[in-house]
Specification:
The chain is of the alpha+beta class. The protein is about 30% helix and about 10% strand. Strand 6 and strand 7 form a beta hairpin. It starts with a helix and ends in a 9-residue tail after the last helix.
């Protein structure tokens, strides 16, 4: 049987052809906690303040610029600590399957915003991940008993959704199942167009782009029906805002944009019996040696088993215990479009077009030396850092 990682690569190619857990004070070296930049533009931390405010070595970051030579950025403690653009401009470009994670966020926002609606029959009430899809849609091609969570986890195509009876299959272009979530959301928000907007395009602007300050994003060319699998065009900075929203548990400037519980489900395995490396349209580390995340990323393990719709009695990995719940997650797109979250380090890494380093581990490898060099415990000893961090035993900035 092919691994989820190999299925992902096959799908990509096919689509291309179509510690200590404590922290002192507020956790930041500079003593100033900034959760996000609000609706306004990012203010880049000055180079001479990067070590103090971000815990990153600026000289090593500049060396990484030369090595990666692609657009990339690092956000830490809610601050834009570093960015580099070979062309000199943060351009709006297609980010391919990184769109899937955007889609899961928007689905979560729809669930959050409709939570108080009364249910009086089919196509009414709040949108929930536990809803049967046929509550919202009259027809669809996958399992008629599928719940929204099954679609978000890419398992709704299975004839049997029972324990150990289903498999994960990467829905690269979204045509198997995930693009139908656009219709689900449009049906849910149609209950109150005055509040939610006329369609998913207006809804996304009103409840995501505007409050989070994503001024340079375009999804499915602005059409009302969205392709959930790809078609998001964005700057590196807008990608970073989405990643930071997730890192902050769905909160932005004191407002809950989507629920923390929904973000948790995005960034932890949905159905461990199908794949321990996938949450709601988001890739997850399975620990040291993970195909995408490399040897220096702690596994994402759900806090309890079984949970929600998952009947799995354990995490599906060799090791299911962890000191800190700090699993690394990532949006991954064709040709190396990446948004990676490191909850234990309060850090988001974003990269575009890094090719063979399509994995989240590739982007992390570029950033890691600059972080470890300034780490007060490991002082540049990357091997020792990775041994502790990857096991979940070191989470200096876990909130």
């Amino acid at each position: 049987m092919r691994s989820p990682a190999s299925l992902f690569l096959v799908a990509f190619l096919a689509f291309a052809a179509c510690g200590d857990s404590s922290s002192s004070g507020d956790g930041t070296p500079g003593g100033v906690q900034e959760a996000d930049p609000g609706r306004g533009p990012w203010e880049l931390v000055p180079r001479d303040r990067v070590a103090e405010e971000c815990g990153l070595n600026p000289d090593l970051l500049e060396q990484a610029n030369a090595a990666i030579d692609r657009p990339w950025a690092i956000v830490r403690y809610g601050k834009l600590c570093h960015e580099y653009y070979p062309s000199g401009t943060d351009e709006v470009t297609e980010v391919f399957s990184a769109t899937k994670t955007l889609s899961a966020v928007v689905t979560g926002i729809a669930a959050h915003e409709t939570r108080d609606l009364a249910r009086s029959g089919r196509k009414t009430g709040p949108l929930s991940d536990t809803d049967r899809v046929d509550h919202w849609l009259d027809e669809f091609s996958f399992n008629p008993e599928a719940r929204v969570a099954h679609v978000l986890a890419m398992v709704a195509h299975n004839e049997n959704l029972g324990l150990e009876q289903k498999s994960f299959a990467y829905d690269a272009a979204g045509e198997v199942q995930i693009n139908r979530l656009s219709d689900v959301i449009n049906t849910a928000i149609d209950q109150d167009p005055a509040r939610f907007g006329e369609d998913l395009e207006e809804f996304t602007h009103r409840f995501l782009y505007e409050p989070v300050g994503m001024t340079s994003s375009r999804w499915t060319s602005g059409r009302p029906d969205k392709v959930f699998a790809f078609s998001w065009e964005a700057t590196t900075r807008d990608m970073a805002r989405l990643g930071l929203l997730m890192l902050n548990g769905g909160a932005w400037s004191g407002e809950q944009i989507l629920s923390e519980d929904w973000v948790y489900k995005m960034t932890h395995p949905s159905f461990e019996d199908a794949s321990p490396s996938y949450g709601y349209l988001t890739w997850l580390s399975t620990g040291p040696g993970d195909f995408f995340f490399g040897s220096c990323a702690p596994a994402s393990i759900f806090r309890e088993h079984p949970h929600g719709l998952s009947e799995s009695s354990d995490c599906g990995l060799d090791q299911c215990t962890q000191e800190n719940d700090v699993g690394v997650w990532s949006a991954l797109g064709l040709f190396g479009q990446i948004i990676t979250g490191h909850p234990g380090l309060d850090m988001v890494i974003v990269a575009k077009d890094i090719g063979d380093a399509v994995s989240a581990g590739g982007a992390w490898a570029f950033a890691r030396p600059a972080l470890v060099a300034e780490d007060p415990r490991f002082n540049g000893d990357e091997d020792a850092f990775c041994q502790s961090y990857a096991s979940g035993g070191y989470a200096p900035d876990l909130r």
